[in-house]
Design goal:
heterodimer, A: alpha+beta, Sufe protein. Chain: A, four-stranded mixed sheet, globular, B: 416 residues, Aspartate Aminotransferase, domain 1, four-stranded antiparallel sheet, 14 helices
Chain lengths: 151, 416
């Protein structure tokens, strides 16, 4: 793999694509939300269980490319146990990182494992894949939520 | 409009001479020489087309049908010449049957909103097939919502061929129109449109043929086909974007209401009554894409100078070569294996999502299309969410197929 590609397809991403964590249906979900990327047909369902304002458990299923699947998998890991407010901050940081100008150094502050997606900013067509799960998560927070799309 | 006599100078097809006419093929992408295999999305433009556009805006620009000044008359003449070139290209009886549109999509919408609105009543039916592009589905759904008519869909088999007996069974007294793709953009299937038109005509049902994909692979003869309407788009036959063509039999076009109102489509306007222009102007409201039409004319002259016989033979050879090369890749499944097929290779690769394939081969300079190709019902029919698609045009080579295969092996390596 050449250098550029390795920036995008980091080992962690390949691993989460192959063995997605928290994959499957959460029967006791308090809320579910669906995400859809009309351009490439990626589909995602998120299942969330809350403890007041805190996400107690989360799972996802669906089909998508390596970036969208790994992003959903890593997102579920990083939001478990977090409050809605903390998750909102994380969303904004993540979104900022993957949509930043590719000439600048990525700001991976407090993103932990999620910083493996910094390479996505070099691939504008793939940003939608990385943020699908996050948009879906956000729509789940809204009582009037509909299917989240990246368009 | 004098395209260089490229390949016609020799009887054997010299792909390198054709390639030399397409300046973009010289460029590099990600440090590799561009391998452009996304021709079903849009084809590249030969120098004569680029030159004509440049010349038009540099030295000839003026609005048509308006002024008595020199440039306006000159532009009007060039625009008329382009219409005649299209007429000959698809062998229409008269250039008044050639309506310039923005693209094939607009041509279909025009028919739906004029002929369709005029004839479809509640309970009537429009017949299409599973392999239609969204542009030949959604305009009919809109029409059905507006009129209470309903859409009937003829199925396809596992190879991607239309099931002709099922199609025939759908035709009946309620069928107001058949609208069918000539060549499937996501499967490559070439439909037996002549047979389909004959079947429909036996029951006096008019047929629209969507030729967006066929018009750059094979010669079109609308009179031999006896189709009632035919649409094509300029940018897929090596011409500019933003220009398309609707052909219609004049006896049908004459009886249809206008599509859009405005300048150039009227005889006289008073607040009491407006009368409409003759064909083709009745369907061309407003200032048209003059440069686009002239560019399309140049593209047609270019294609004619190469010749469809040699283009088709070359593409057929590459289709066979590409099919064999791709199917030898482990885990690759071809989507669309019809007996009559054009040079479109649509496939899925086990363990690698098409979107990832697209990104990885792009890093090797190979441009292919990935996704549902605006044919979601086809994806559903084959139980896939998306495919990767390599589509071949006259300037492609065996070397480029090899580059694709190599890049696909790389993609497999990443996800091994």
């Amino acid at each position: 793999m050449n250098l550029d590609l390795r920036d995008l397809y980091q080992e962690v991403i390949l691993d989460h694509n192959k063995r997605p964590r928290n994959f499957g249906v959460l029967e006791e979900a308090d809320r579910t939300a669906e995400g859809y990327n009309p351009l490439c047909g990626d589909k995602l369902t998120l299942y969330l269980q809350f403890d007041g304002e805190v996400i107690r458990d989360v799972r996802f299923d669906g089909s998508g490319c390596a970036i969208s699947k790994a992003s959903a998998s890593l997102m579920t890991e990083s939001i478990k146990g977090k409050s809605l407010k903390e998750v909102e901050t994380l969303f904004e940081r993540f979104q900022g990182m993957v949509t930043a100008d590719s000439d600048t150094l990525p700001n991976t502050d407090q993103l932990g494992k999620l910083s493996v997606f910094a390479g996505v900013r070099e691939y504008p067509a793939r940003v939608k894949c990385a943020v699908l799960a996050w948009h879906t998560l956000r729509s789940a927070f809204r009582p009037e939520h509909k299917v989240a799309t990246t368009e | 409009m004098n395209p260089r006599k490229s390949a016609s100078a020799t009887s054997a097809f010299d792909v390198e001479r054709v390639r030399a006419d397409f300046p973009i093929l010289e460029r590099e992408v990600h440090g590799h020489k561009l391998v452009y295999l996304d021709n079903a999305a849009t084809t590249q433009k030969p120098q004569p087309v680029i030159d004509v556009l440049n010349r038009y805006y540099s030295t000839e620009n003026a609005n048509i049908h308006r002024g008595v000044h020199y440039l306006s008359e000159y532009s009007t003449k060039s625009h008329d010449t382009a219409r005649t070139l299209v007429q000959r290209f698809i062998n229409a009886r008269s250039s008044s049957e050639i309506i310039f549109t923005r693209n094939a999509t607009e041509g279909i919408n025009l028919i739906a909103q004029t002929y369709g609105r005029q004839h479809a009543k509640p309970g009537d039916e429009i017949v299409i097939t599973t392999m239609e592009h969204h542009s030949n589905i959604v305009p009919w759904q809109l029409l059905c919502e507006q009129t209470g008519a309903c859409l009937r869909v003829a199925p396809i088999d596992d190879t991607g061929e239309l099931q002709l007996d099922e199609f025939e069974a759908l035709l009946g007294p309620r069928t107001k129109l058949v609208s069918i793709v000539h060549l499937s953009n996501s499967l490559g299937t070439i439909n037996p449109v002549k047979k389909i038109i004959d079947l429909a005509h036996q029951q006096d049902i008019p047929v629209l043929v969507d030729g967006a994909q066929s018009a750059y692979h094979m010669p079109i003869d609308v009179q031999a086909l006896d189709c009632d309407f035919f649409v094509l788009t300029g940018h897929k036959i090596y011409g500019p974007t933003g220009i398309g063509v609707l052909y219609g039999k004049s006896e049908l076009l004459d009886t249809m209401p206008p599509y859009q109102g405005g300048g150039d489509m009227i005889n006289s306007v008073t607040f009491a009554k407006t009368t409409y222009s003759e064909l083709p102007h009745k369907f061309e409201a407003g200032t048209p894409h003059i440069a686009g039409a002239i560019g399309l004319g140049a593209a047609i002259e270019y294609v004619n100078s190469v010749g469809f016989d040699v283009i088709a033979a070359h593409e057929r050879e590459l289709l066979a070569y590409g099919t064999e090369a791709l199917t030898s890749i482990k885990g690759l499944r071809m989507i669309g294996t019809a007996r009559e097929k054009a040079s479109i290779l649509s496939f899925v690769l086990e363990g690698v999502h098409p979107h990832d394939i697209g990104t990885i081969v792009d890093q090797e300079g190979v441009a292919i299309r990935t996704g549902h190709h605006c044919t979601q019902p086809v994806m559903d029919r084959f139980s896939v969410v998306a495919t990767a698609r390599a589509s071949i045009a006259m300037y492609n080579t065996r070397y480029e197929i090899d580059a694709l295969v190599k890049a696909l092996e790389k993609a497999r390596g990443v996800f091994a």
